[in-house]
Amino acid sequence: MRSAHQSPSETPIIPVIAIDGPAGAGKSTLARDLAERLGMYHVDSGAFYRTITAWALKAHPQNPEKAITPAFLEQLDIPVAPYGRRIGPVNRQGQPLGTEIRTPEVNRWVSEISRHPRVREYVNARLRALAVRWPLVIDGRDIGTAVFPDAPVKFFITCDPHVRAQRRLAEMRQAAGAAPLDEKAVLENILKRDRIDSQRATAPLKQAPDAFVIDTTHLDRTAQLEKAVEYIRQKAPFLLAGRSR
Ligand code: DC
């Protein structure tokens, strides 16, 4: 399939920025900030895998993998809509899915569910269809390696696992008002997901050879954005054209 940025030169090129890395490294925050800065749209591909996991959990609370059948996949139709500078799964009222796809249960199962090749095919098809219409900053695990291997800009975000656990915990506290888990449990979940995401057979978490690496362990949000923008200025200055630099 031809992706948006591979169009022949006479047709408009819609750019994709790919941001990959392990859980909690800061991909989504950077993706959101870049989308704002460049006038693009942020897609959190993990939200698709989380939505499928939440739905599978409804059908089989004890073992959601049992829900991943050909019939389930055939009927799968996640409603997606733009909201602000973001595009992603929404509920029947058109509201973006939030805390319901970030529960401890979804965290517990999402890596297992996203291992299934048919689940991945579904999400990838949805992402590629969005990229035909919108300029996107997409964050995930395999965006620069498998979904958009020709993306003109790719980032790979890394961060010390302890710092990642602390950030995730802070996010969860903010979302829920209180932390449902302690740091040790969050760290264990992060490390387990890293292991499954990196070792799965289909499209594992892996740095693309042409990705620019940003280690966010000692960088605050502004410094991360500036580092990314500086790289874009050199690699793909057309993305900054007409923007305040
Ligand atoms: O980014 P996140 O933690 O919300 O992602 C949740 C899970 O979804 C992650 O553990 C693995 C899976 N995922 C994936 O396999 N591929 C992607 N492109 C994005 C997420």
Summarize the structure.
With 245 residues, the chain is an alpha/beta fold. The protein has 9 helices and 7 strands, in the order βαβααββααβαβααβα.
CATH superfamily placement: P-loop containing nucleotide triphosphate hydrolases
Give the helix proportion (percent range).
Answer: 40-55%
| Estimated structural class | alpha/beta
Distance between the termini: 34 Å
**Oligomeric state of shown chains:** single chain
Q: What is the chain-wise order of helices and strands?
A: EHEHHEEHHEHEHHEH
> How are the strands of the biggest sheet laid out side by side?
2-5-1-6-7
- The number of domains is 1
- Ions and ligands: 2'-deoxycytidine-5'-monophosphate
Enumerate how many helices there are, as a single number.
9
Instruction: State the low-pLDDT regions, or none.
Output: 1-12
In the CATH classification, which architecture applies? 3-Layer(aba) Sandwich
Radius of gyration: 17 Å
Strand content: 5-15%
Per CATH, the class reads: Alpha Beta
Please describe the biggest sheet, giving its number of strands, its sense, and whether it closes into a barrel.
Answer: 5 strands, parallel
Question: Per CATH, what is the topology?
Answer: Rossmann fold
Tally of DSSP β-strands: 7
